[in-house]
Amino acid sequence: MSRVRVKICGITNPEDALSAVAAGADALGFVFYEKSPRYVAPEAAARICAQVPAFVAKVGLFVDHDETAVRNVLSSVELELLQFHGNETESYCKQFDRPYIKAVRVNTENQIRDALAQYPSAKNLLLDAYVKGVPGGTGQKFDWGLIPVELAHYVILAGGLDPQNVAEAVSMIKPYAVDVSGGVEQAKGIKNQSAVQEFIKEVWRAQNVY
Ligand SMILES: O=C(O)c1ccccc1NCC(=O)[C@H](O)[C@H](O)COP(=O)(O)O
């Protein structure tokens, strides 16, 4: 089994980005959804991303943005991956000539299978909790039992993870990766750097990776 990857989402400043990288993060997420308390302006994200070393993926998050807005971000920010949290279609998601992750807000098991069929070009599906009217970053868990066992290797598990519950999630689900935002924050958009370290250590501990 390969090591479960860790994405730290909702990065808004260079200190949190570099501290997460030093702690072992595999990917950093930048929220370009203006209604989010973790919104980061493209100019600020560009400055942060320019400081991130090689082999750490920078991921841009979007929610039903118009295509021009996504292209504008891509023209100025070094992003390896896109992550879509809205009602974007597959043809919309794949038009940007960049690998993408499709977020699915989980209610039912069939929904995960349906999303797999609907987004064959997605690199991975990110599974998050369904909360009415909120496209992501809610801090809520969903029923992990809804994840079909045979799809776990393809799944980025998100929603309400924190240093206390992530080891259980990794042992139980064995996902491709885990994704956290609120569970390692000291305030919205500001990471608790010790909690980020603890979170990553717990992911590794659950797999005996040191
Ligand atoms: O973080 C946000 O505010 C946000 C807003 C709109 C779409 C997506 C958003 N965040 C996505 C994520 O950060 C991840 O899905 C995250 O791992 C789950 O968040 P959390 O439950 O806080 O760990």
UniProtKB/TrEMBL annotation:
The keyword S-adenosyl-L-methionine does not apply. It comes from the Bacteria. Its EC number is 5.3.1.24. Pathway: Amino-acid biosynthesis; L-tryptophan biosynthesis; L-tryptophan from chorismate: step 3/5. It catalyses: N-(5-phospho-beta-D-ribosyl)anthranilate = 1-(2-carboxyphenylamino)-1-deoxy-D-ribulose 5-phosphate. GO terms for molecular function: phosphoribosylanthranilate isomerase activity. Pfam families: PRAI. The keyword Isomerase applies. InterPro entries: Aldolase_TIM, PRAI_dom, RibuloseP-bd_barrel, TrpF_fam. PANTHER family: N-(5'-PHOSPHORIBOSYL)ANTHRANILATE ISOMERASE. This is N-(5'-phosphoribosyl)anthranilate isomerase. It comes from Oleiphilus messinensis. The gene is trpF.
